[in-house]
Amino acid sequence: MDLSVLWFWIVAFLFIGYFVLDGFDFGVGMSLPFLGRDETDRRVLINTIGPVWDLNETWVIVAGASLFAAFPEWYATLFSGFYLALLLILLALIARGVSFEYRHQRPESRWKRSFDRMIIVGSAVPAFLWGVAFANIVQGVPLDAGHNYTGTLLDLLNPYALLGGATTLLLFFTHGVVFVSLKTEGELRERARRLAARSGFIAIVVAAAFLAWTGLAFGAPWFWGFAAAAAIALVAGWLANAGGAEGLAFSLLAITTAAAVLALFSALFPEVMPASNDPANSLTIENASSSTYTLTVMSWTALIFFPLVLAYQGWTYWVFRKRVTRASIEAAAH
């Protein structure tokens, strides 16, 4: 396989890791106003992701760095053209991270509520805008001959992209709520399971519309296979949640996210940034990639360090695998 093609799929793998792991983090954050009936509930919710949220977030850094090194033209066009949307994502992630660290520093309820709102907004904004960004990448944006984006931020908020944003928002929300049911006990666990059933049904409808639109407008043969896998896993995850099998539901929703990302990348292939105004201005894997030497060095580096990163992350989840209970939170308060 050509190294540039290999790195196209490695970038896809890194975004799968990010959307699966930070995606359910976003869902937990967005669930605060729905599941956090009192301060103890909210602390339980935050503690379910407390040990892992920052590790999950590093996947986007690795994905961005890999994109910069492997496809500098793609990186330059994407980050210059989408800079306002990506800046909003960055500010939201900063606000969310600050909130996790500072929320518990003072006992006043007003202080905590302020940071709770930052967590909610800091989770919802990236969950929505990542879908908007990837939908625009797939459908193409206006580019000049120098591969510079010639549109505006409002041009990115078109109906197809907004549907993509709604899809990721609902999918991440449902995945996060299922994670809450997997990591908690008692009444909170049951409320999370019921909420996931409701949000999951809406996610199925919206995701089906988005995947159908994508397939009919931009889909390649591979797309339909991945889209079908995403649809089957989403429905199966919804049914597993209804049956009380939280672990299976969480795994199936992770498969849903992975298959959906692969479907989008397969719809994009072999382009990386289609030009909607003139196909001659499009960025492809061939004209956007780095030199063979650069990709070779990156490949050997990835071969050495990827297994170590995956092993460390797996170990982290194993260490913090136990459920978070209200009793443990109340005991820690004393």
UniProtKB/TrEMBL annotation:
PANTHER family: CYTOCHROME BD-I UBIQUINOL OXIDASE SUBUNIT 2 (PTHR43141:SF5), CYTOCHROME BD2 SUBUNIT II (PTHR43141). The keyword Amino-acid biosynthesis does not apply. It holds the Pfam family Cyt_bd_oxida_II. The keyword Electron transport applies. The chain crosses the membrane at residues 6-32, 74-98, 119-140, 160-183, 195-216, 222-240, 247-269, 297-320. It is found in: Cell membrane. It is a multi-pass membrane protein. Keywords: Cell membrane, Electron transport, Heme, Iron, Membrane, Metal-binding, Transmembrane, Transmembrane helix, Transport. InterPro entries: Cyt-d_oxidase_su2. This is Cytochrome d ubiquinol oxidase subunit II. Belongs to the cytochrome ubiquinol oxidase subunit 2 family. Its main location: membrane.
